[in-house]
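To whoever is on call:

I kicked off a structure prediction for a single chain this morning and the downstream step that reads the tokens threw a length-mismatch warning. I double-checked the sequence; it's 306 residues and nothing unusual in it as far as I can see. Pasting both halves so you can look.
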Amino acid sequence: MEEMVYLYTMQQEIRTIIDKTPGGLRVYVKRICLICCGALLMAVNIKTFVRAGNLFPGGFTGLALLIQRIADRYFSLKIPYSPVVILLNSVPVVISFKYIGKQFTLYSCLMIVMSSVLADVLPAIDITQDVLLAAVFGGLLSSFAVYLCLLAGATSGGTDFIAIFISEKYGRDAWNYILVFNAVVLCAAGIMFGWNRALYSILFQFTSTQFLNTVYKRYQKATLFVITNKAADVYKVIHDTTNHDATLFTGTGCYGNTGRDMLYSVVSGDDVRIVTKKIKETDPHAFVNIVHSQQILGKFYVRPNN
């Protein structure tokens, strides 16, 4: 009887997730597929480039591998990868569930479990024995796997939970801070297992972080200066597309000595391409200046993770 009640509760929870997901079942399936692809790539990366280079990828993945190697070298114990990763992620999962979002956390848990289990199940694959190549291409593959998870509204867990929590709470792009944290952890690995592999591992993490900074712009911010003769229409486009407001400045165009309006707005980096396209459709003669914003002070709307 208790098992039936538990299954019914889980069924209702899954149905609630599907119903609340924008776009319904289609978007739900898309998110699951992205997470499955990300988990597979993460596991393949561990069994190929990470293993070939004997690297420590940083984050909780690197910490789990470090614990495995410490247990093997100093205690002659063969510890499976998946239980260690799941245990390490237990505290960040609680923080994410409380402060970031329930659905986001559930999807992330799926990613963590799938990637860790696949890393234990998949056979080792020999691609290259060159440590430099393993560090560079392993970092790229790792960041692409994380990128797929972020597109699905999830994360690979561990320090990614922390980075997203900092980004949403304090409005800062935290990936470079995580890079520094990982470098400190890898220094500890260097002391125990040699600096050569630790330094290559830092290169692995640097490649991963910089690629992710380039392709994923959700927590980056851009300032738009839009000079237009259709200020009301352009403002509506900005507000409807990004849910951000704007400030109107009036001035004089020096070339024609005519009155011009300028809208000033700060939007999320991943909204820039869409909103600028719609602005040009609304006013083909609009002049748009896009400036990267390093940091802003004040209220800034961030779409919730669902």
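Update from on-call: the warning came from a stale cache, not from the record. Cleared it. Sanity check on the structure: The chain has two domains: 2-215, 221-293.
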